[in-house]
């Protein structure tokens, strides 16, 4: 059963190691914990909600926003034991940016607002950003304290059609992690991802720091605050939808979810065996 909880209630449950499935009381993100295992899945850009008070002031269409979001990334990992996912659009505030840059003035070269946002409007969004990271901090603290180390799979997607060259189906960004310590796990995760089987003879390819380098705030925040937690920024190109026609291919999303169902925990177990036990 999904609960609606305050930030304080969520953190209390985490500290007590209680399993739960909740949406925060302002509906900005969800957290599911079936069991306090050694790995966490996250989909910070999965959200599409957009506060009604922003609608008339926004120059971008709903499609423009959807195009830059990461739809279905939560579904790809939804059956894993710990999943945290954003519900709000990155166009309100971006959970993968630092607070000072989390609210866009422009987005991908296009002005976003007809009129500048009022301070109280920004502060309402930044409070949600702040609360999300309070919970992230409590969650990673709990897993690190329980196991000594943790691994986080930071799921994203990107628009492959905007590139004028061949790009990998899956990109792993590693420029802001401790590569001396974790290189074997980034390499093995890249190899694992390259072996995913997809419908329609989609040829799966995976690369490290090809299209993106892992510069997101979610990865940086955890890496800076927790020296024994590895965050793997994992970006699927949008082969699971038609990014120009606003169509999701549910059978491809399901195939990714099914492949990750076994491959992801197997990789996390390798990490556990080396760094935790």
Note down, in words, how this protein is organized.
The chain has 8 helices and 13 strands. The protein has helices at residues 7-15, 52-55, 62-68, 73-76, 119-147, 179-194, 217-225, 250-275, and strands at 2-5, 20-24, 29-33, 39-43, 82-86, 106-107, 110-111, 150-158, 170-173, 206-208, 229-237, 241-242, 247-248. The protein has a 9-stranded mixed β-sheet with strand order 1-2-3-5-4-8-11-9-10, sandwiched between helices. A two-stranded antiparallel ribbon has the order 6-7. A two-stranded antiparallel sheet has the order 12-13. Helix 1 runs parallel beside helix 5.
- CA radius of gyration: 18 Å
Helix and strand sequence:
EHEEEHHHEEEHEEHEHEEEH
- How widely separated are the two ends? 33 Å
Structural class, please?
alpha/beta
Strand order of the largest sheet: 1-2-3-5-4-8-11-9-10
Low-confidence stretches: none
Largest sheet: 9 strands, mixed
Large-scale geometry: globular
**Helix count, per DSSP?**
8
Task: List how many beta strands DSSP finds.
Answer: 13
The average pLDDT is: 97
What level of helicity do the residues show? 25-40%
Strand content: 15-25%
């Amino acid at each position: 059963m999904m609960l609606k909880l305050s930030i304080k209630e969520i953190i209390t449950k985490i500290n007590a190691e209680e399993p739960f499935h909740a949406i925060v009381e302002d509906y900005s993100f969800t957290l599911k914990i079936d069991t306090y295992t050694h790995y966490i899945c996250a989909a910070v850009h999965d959200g599409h909600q957009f506060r009604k008070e922003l609608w008339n002031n926004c120059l971008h269409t709903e499609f423009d926003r959807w195009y830059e979001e990461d739809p279905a990334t939560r579904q790809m990992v939804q059956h894993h034991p710990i999943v945290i996912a954003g519900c709000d659009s990155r166009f309100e505030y971006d959970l993968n940016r630092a607070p000072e840059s989390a609210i866009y003035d422009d987005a991908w070269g296009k002005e976003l607002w007809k009129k500048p946002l009022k301070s109280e409007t920004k502060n309402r969004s930044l409070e949600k950003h702040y609360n999300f990271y309070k919970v992230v901090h409590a969650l990673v603290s709990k897993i690190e304290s329980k196991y000594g180390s943790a691994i986080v799979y930071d799921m994203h997607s990107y628009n492959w059609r905007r590139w004028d060259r061949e790009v990998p189906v899956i990109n792993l960004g590693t420029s802001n992690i401790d590569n001396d310590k974790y290189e074997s796990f980034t390499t093995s995760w890249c190899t694992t991802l390259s072996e995913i089987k997809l419908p329609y003879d989609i040829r799966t390819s995976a690369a490290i720091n090809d299209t993106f380098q892992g510069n997101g705030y979610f990865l940086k925040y955890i890496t800076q605050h927790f020296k024994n937690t590895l965050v793997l920024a994992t970006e699927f190109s949008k082969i699971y939808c038609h990014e120009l026609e606003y169509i999701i291919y549910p059978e491809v999303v399901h195939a990714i979810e099914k492949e990750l169902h076994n491959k992801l925990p197997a990789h996390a177990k390798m990490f556990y065996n080396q760094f935790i036990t």
